[in-house]
Design goal:
Layout: E1 7-9, H1 14-24, E2 28-31, H2 37-42, E3 50-53, E4 63-66, E5 69-73, H3 78-83, H4 89-95, H5 101-106, H6 109-115, H7 121-128, E6 132-137, E7 140-145, H8 146-149, E8 150-152, E9 155-156, E10 163-169, E11 175-181, E12 191-199, E13 205-213, E14 220-221, H9 223-229, H10 236-246, H11 260-279
Parallel strand pairs: 1-3, 2-3
Antiparallel strand pairs: 4-5, 5-10, 6-7, 6-10, 8-9, 11-12, 12-13, 13-14
Helix pairs in contact: 4-7, 9-10, 10-11
Length: about 290
């Protein structure tokens, strides 16, 4: 199959890209790495009149610390983010599951966030790390927490005249883990859990964040599971109880890969594995 006809625009600056999005609105789509958008074009599931190609746009690939946060440009390639020494280990772990190396070589962190595939690993890690998305338009910049950014499958808070500029990640907790399962290695995730946490001197959980893939039509946090574990020693009993309470309100999809009931059962096991794995990782500086 061939994609529908479209105009290819290759801005050199962010300002030029924003002007194109303001001019064309819903008729425009942003092209980053193209790993998700190009298949949609070929299958004619997306029919933009204009592709705003950011690959020649300067200043969107930096990975640097500033003002107490890690700032990752939207066009930073997934492989570069995964390997950068300043990247939080949880995000690096999650990106290790994000398809084969050829995909990570071209795919961008911003593209994964903006596409918002409910099976994608990077959005769940960003949610777990309390990341903030920086969106830009002619009206200026606005900051959207990851908890408010992912609205539905393939739907985010990005308006038609906006583009994702960068992802800001505050300091992480000292321990983390990411676990996933799918039909086959390198397939899309059927279910996954991301967690980062801290332990006190008695081995009790003093801070924890848990995010899930497969518990809804978008990545979600599990606040009830977090509350159930806070201040407690992570034993098999407390972990099973946290999984039961935390997943009670989940609404996992049923599809050709797995039923909702199967996903819930798998997520409960993954939650236990992720928390125990985080507890047993070597503590690091935030």
């Amino acid at each position: 199959m061939k994609p529908p006809p479209f105009l290819h625009a290759a801005p050199r600056t962010v300002a030029e890209a924003i002007d194109l999005l303001a001019e064309h609105g819903d008729a425009a789509r942003v092209l980053a790495g193209g790993q998700s958008l190009m298949p949609l074009l070929v299958m004619r599931m997306a029919r933009p009149s204009v592709l705003v190609d950011l690959n020649r746009c300067a200043g969107l690939s930096a990975i640097e610390r500033a003002d107490g946060a890690l700032r990752i440009g939207a066009m930073a390639r997934q492989i570069d983010v995964q390997r950068a020494p300043q990247t939080p280990p949880l995000l690096a772990m999650a990106l290790g599951w994000a398809g084969p190396r050829a995909v990570r070589n071209r795919g961008t962190l911003g593209g994964s966030m903006a596409h918002a595939d409910p099976s994608a690993e990077a959005p769940a890690a960003a949610l777990c790390l309390d990341a903030v998305m920086v969106l830009a338009s002619r009206q200026g910049q606005r900051l959207v927490p990851a908890a408010e950014f992912f609205h539905d499958a393939l739907v985010t808070a990005i308006a038609p005249d906006e583009m994702l500029l960068e992802i800001r990640i505050p300091p992480a907790h000292p321990r983390c883990h990411f676990v996933e399962t799918g039909v086959r290695q390198a397939d899309l995730a059927m279910a996954a859990i991301a967690t980062d946490l801290a332990l006190d001197g008695q081995g009790r959980i003093s801070a924890i964040r848990i995010a899930a893939i497969g518990a809804a039509n978008r990545p979600i946090r599990l606040p009830l599971a977090e509350q159930a574990l806070l201040g407690r020693t992570p034993t098999p009993t407390t972990l099973r109880e946290a999984a039961r309470v935390g997943l009670a309100g989940a609404e996992p999809p049923s599809d050709l890969i797995a039923s909702a009931a199967h996903r819930l059962a798998v997520l409960a096991g993954l939650l236990e594995e992720a928390v125990l794995g985080a507890c047993h990782t070597e503590a690091r500086a935030a």
